[in-house]
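Hey, I'm writing a tutorial for new members on how sequence and structure tokens pair up, and I'd like a real worked example in the thread rather than a made-up one. If someone can provide the structure for the chain below, I'll link this post from the tutorial.
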Amino acid sequence: MGYLIVTARSLLWMLASLVATLLMLGALMSPVWLVANPQSVRYDNETILYTPSVGVYTKCSKPIKFEKASCTAIAVRGLATESYVYPSVWKAATVFLITGIMIMSATVFMSLISCCVQSLFKKSIFTMSGVAQAFAGICFILGVMLHPMGWGATRVQKLCGRDASPFYPADCSLGLGLVLAAIGTILAFVSACLSVPAEKSTSSDTVQDQIYEGQTLICLA
């Protein structure tokens, strides 16, 4: 007979995993890791203000007609894009971030099925997911650290000034995308740690007693 086990700690682990995944996905798609000073352009005798910026995979530049800014992907040809357009370190950062996001997405799915199935191939779902989330966190750290290494690239110097160099943004400021990436990375490691109490809560004596009593829906605080 199947049964469903839901505890406060397992729900907290599930929520932390989901939020970490969404934050890192938002960070990857965000064009505001580095934000330049506001600029202006004239169209039909009208001045339009815009703020150019650049992220890991996207950028915002001079507006087209009367839009505030034109935000597009940096890598039109993906990883095959020339390095002077899409720096090699940013390509590596993209690979690490996508890898981490895919792993975290898998653990979110695992956290959902953990309510019904606590082990796969005789291995604890919580343990496997916790280890995977720690590995995803390492991928995120590498991805986040590789982005500042590309700040000396020509495209960044055009945006932030000639003084821009690795880990020094010169005239640019750090944007929301980098903040999201930092929070998401921390939360990935928090999720890995939460997998331990989540496992203990779903295999406690109280849970086992309710299973022996024939209950199929077990909810514990």
